[in-house]
Amino acid sequence: MPTIPSNVRGARFTGWGVALGEKIVTNDDLALTMETSDEWIRERTGIHRRHIGGSTAAMSIESGSAALAMAGIDPASIDALVLATTTPDRAVPATSATVQNALGLRCGAFDVNAACSGFVYGLINAHGLIALGAERVLVIGTDSLSRVTDWTDRNTAILFADGSGAAVLESTSGHGQLLGWDLDADGSAEEILFAEIGGFIRMDGKEVFRRAVRIMVDSAQKSMKAAGITADQLSVVVPHQANIRIITSACDKLGVPMEKVSVVVHETGNTSSASIPLALFGDFGQVRPKEGDLVLLVGFGAGMTAASAVLQWGAQ
Ligand code: UT7
Q: Would you give the DSSP letter of residue 197?
């Protein structure tokens, strides 16, 4: 478990933005075309509606330009673009290239595919680039899962949706916001959640659920240990928004009360790489961090990846 060297060059968020798919699809809409119900979906997942439609590039451009505007910086001053996505628009080039050009960036750009852990993977990479001398990095998490969802499969179609969240990370003179982090993966579980190239997502929901709780708790504990904090010191927890029952079970095991947990899954469904930034930066009435708060981001996804980070909100 790596710990952050005390003299590392730090960074913090200075701007952020979000975007959602163009069309709202309710549970009742889904019940018109498959054997399911609003009551079943709410009870088993916590999802009330989801937003679908829009390419990965288009949503990334929308959230990314909002983040640049909030930070008040010239796009040409960004030193790198990290785009977390598991649904690139093309096989080649990386969707980050399209986004880099559209936003007027003049820097390196690359995609990161770590499924639903993607935003945290991208964020840790961005902190690493700043430690190596970059001044400003744009980190985006976007997925258009509706394109890889089989809309006749009630096992998956009730869960997945489209969205994007972006943040500008800028270097600071102090230690910065990142206090501890953990990245993990277990490729031996590949078959429980996958999509072939050009195919739809296939999932063993029960097995994903069972592992998800365990790996989120494990990763969160590693990050907290690296940060030298305990769960009772956290003010806000931002978990991957897959299923409210996974969130409550993991937070219960971590000893974090639900009043501290940011939940947007009722509004967004599971947007994979976009899920954590939507829950952190969105405006859905969720828990939002204040200056100085300790914040835990924790995700899990196909691969089976897990990723977490302990941040001090607003830290210089
Ligand atoms: O980012 C990571 C992505 N994936 C996940 O996080 C998925 C994790 N897993 C889950 O969220 C849950 O396992 C699901 C929501 C997918 C399923 O919930 P569950 O509580 O595990 O349901 P189940 O598969 O055990 O099914 C219970 C019953 C079954 O009927 P019987 O056999 O008891 O008669 C299913 O056939 O519910 C039935 N069922 C449905 N009924 C209405 C399964 N899906 C549906 C549905 N609507 N959509």
A: T
